Amino acid sequence: MAMATPTIVLLPVWGAGHLMPMLEAGKRLLASSGGGHAFSVTVLVMPPPPTEQQASEVDGHIRRAEEEVAAAAGDLDVRFQRLPAVDPPTDHQGPVEFISRVVELHAPNVRAAISGLPPASPVAAVVLDLFCTPLIDVARDLAVPSTYVYFTCNAAALSFFLRLPALCDEVAGEFVDMDGGAAVDISGLPPVPPLSLLTPVMEKTKPECAWYSYHGRRFADADGIVVNTAAELEPGVLSAIAAGRCTHGNAPPRLYAIGPVISFPRRHRRRIHACGGWTRNHRRRAGFLTAAQAHEVAHGLERSGHRFLWVLRGPPAPGTRSPTDADLAGGELLPEGFLDAVTGDDNDDGGGGRGMVWPTTAPQKEILAHAAVGGFVTHCGWNSVMESLWCGVPMAPWPMYAEQHLNAFAMVGAMGVAVSMEVDRKKGNFVEAAELERAVREMMGGGDEGRKVREKAAAMKVACRNAVVDGGSSAAALRRLAGDIVSRCAMNGPNEVGALLSDD
Length: 504
Known about the structure:
Protein name: Glycosyltransferase
Structural class: alpha/beta
CATH class of the largest domain: Alpha Beta
Family: Belongs to the UDP-glycosyltransferase family.
Distance between the termini: 26 Å
Strand content: 5-15%
Number of domains: 2
Keywords: Transferase
Low-confidence stretches: 267-273, 280-287, 347-352, 494-504
Number of helices: 17
Radius of gyration: 23 Å
GO molecular function, one term: UDP-glucosyltransferase activity
């Protein structure tokens, strides 16, 4: 009788920034556990409820992942199982509430999917997205040997999540109403200004904050938290969490810092060629901008004196949430004459040829890896930050929503990999042209701040790459995670797994 191959169940939410990093983490976990044959991975795919466009995007990601698995010819044991759709809530007040309530509705589907896995694939562990903590109870009810949370953000955001339940009691009134000179204590970080906190928690009386607090409490019920960072990137925050400073004397969660978790698919080669000639010194990746803000960006870039590639998207179509391709010829988004001024002949004595405005999606990872890129103006989504540090590219932070303002604070004040840039959060995260010009000049070669940031970004490139190779801190954390899964299986699950990693 053939020996069973235990499976690790991954349960991401549908957003690409959550789905794709978890898939990559699952593949790395397979590789770290005996050449990919000690475990298999089963991905339970929740259908994205918001729009048909988002459903199509998720299907595309899954289809490409399935093609990669098929091309691996048995070396990559990953299976995908799509869960039935649920009727999403219509009375939610924000995206985190919406996602969390959809996850709750999927509890019966997840229970049925795990229970229905074949005996040849006994469940060794369940790894849940950070917004899937209600499903910890399902895993416990099914006696799954171990349950982990995959935290797609950085350790600074994790520290905040863990601190939030207590912070809600400690801070009188709303975070958004705190005095401008006040600061919030988030363990492992310098004192945090209230306006650097996560967007959904600024008003504690709203359901969004309640759900963030709920997830922060539930993290303690998991057997560990897998974080997309490296020990070398956030040593102070990781030490603070491990010491229990975020959990007020309660046992801290077991941490596995396995980052950077980045995949580099061989795609978009034609598009790289189309915009690769402009991957010089500056890149702006955004959702969409108002015309007023786009005009400020245009003036700031033009006056900065540096070459740039600006990825500018248009507003979503009615009834959708995703940006559309920008209409550069319509005369509204850009100042009159701007394109002619910056995209002319490189030999034009008038200064033309210094920039390119790209109106659709662009291959960010490949652009950042281009040797000509010297800086990145970023919204500070953590996946983008990891990609930039992997390439040693310094940043100027322009946060917009979610945890991005806290990321920006950590990037400048704790990690030292970004220059400061003033963002007026009370005016819709508005940035004036003069401030963008100053930040770009500083990032690209200005004074002492820019020099230190460039040096730190270069050092973090080395640290990131060293962390994921054999003997590196992240590779060791992955191996430790695989070993812990095996140990818990040996104690609580199938007898066959006891010797899976006996080659250590």
